[in-house]
Amino acid sequence: MSINLDLPPELENQLFTEASRLNLPLSEYILRILSVRQVLANPPKTGAELVAYWQSEGVINSRPDITDSQAYARKLRHQTQTRERE
Question: Second label for 61, Cα 20 to 30 Å away, from 5, 23, 67, 70?
Answer without folding.
Answer: 23
